[in-house]
Amino acid sequence: MTTLKVGIPRALIYYHYYPMWRTFFERLGAEVVTSPATTGRVVRAGSSCVVSQTCLSMKVYCGHVMSLVGQCDCIFVPAIRSVERNVYNCSNFLGLPDLVKAVVPDCPLILDVDIDVNRNKRALYESIYRLGRRFTWNPFAIKDAAEAAWRAHQDYQMLMSGESLSIPQAIDRLFGDGGADTDARQGTEDLTVAVIGHPYMIHDDYASQRLVFRLRGLGARVVTAEMVPAADLDEGVRKLAGRPYWTYEDELVGAAGHYLHSEVDGIVGIVPFGCGPDSVMVDVVQRYVKRNRTKPIMILTIDEHTGEAGLVTRLEAYLDMVRRRRRGCA
Ligand code: SF4
Known about the structure:
Structural class: alpha/beta
Number of helices: 14
Distance between the termini: 69 Å
Radius of gyration: 20 Å
CATH class of the largest domain: Alpha Beta
Helix content: 40-55%
Shape: globular
CATH topology of the largest domain: Rossmann fold
Bound molecules: iron/sulfur cluster
Number of strands: 10
């Protein structure tokens, strides 16, 4: 019997759930093929198949799906509507499988699953079971794969919040292919900077223009939302916005709410051009900072045309200001 190859695009919620998905499919006997790291060609390919107003992250995602065409038998594209009661995802996540089928030329079979915790648990289990049935008729094997996947997800989260590993480092620890971000200057930093935003922006070296690497190179230790326990992120959201409006907004608002009252020296936010939810939530964060005069914050909006030189200049100027402020000169 030939092994089914399942493609997983290295974009969007890959960064949240890759260990869980990979464990699930491998336990069911599939081979997982992950798309390579984002490049200019990937972004150009993705941009060419969607309208120009689409957010940068979706363009990157479509580019990754296109890079998997011909490399696998099917591509896993979940529709994640909600992972928290009464809090919904941005509409792009809701219609992701349909969008991919509609815009990607020669699109192979799409494996989708509907995740919505607002429906009853039975509906969620049925969705997972339907997905597993593509690989086996044995319900116990599907249950076993789902349980192993959930354990892998918990281990992944523990590596990040317990050991302060970044997402690439945690994936690298689990599977040896996360492209762990190391840097010669680690341990010599004189500042701590929190980088807030979605992991699919922060940890995608091409989309973020190597933001984390550059900050470290400029002498800053970088901390991110995944290093903060979930309860503290929830508290951060409550402080700034009152209640969560979109799933995954804790990565921006919750992290800001937490780090604005912590020991970090400054905060850098990174948002993709064209993101509706982030444009609203960045405003919430900036108004809070203005009112409370807490920490210096800089928001970077990135699109596929953002130049490296301009970004580096802004980072250098920002860190200079943070250092002067720390010395009491500003
Ligand atoms: S949350 Fe923003 S960046 Fe993410 S998919 Fe939706 S619009 Fe795009």
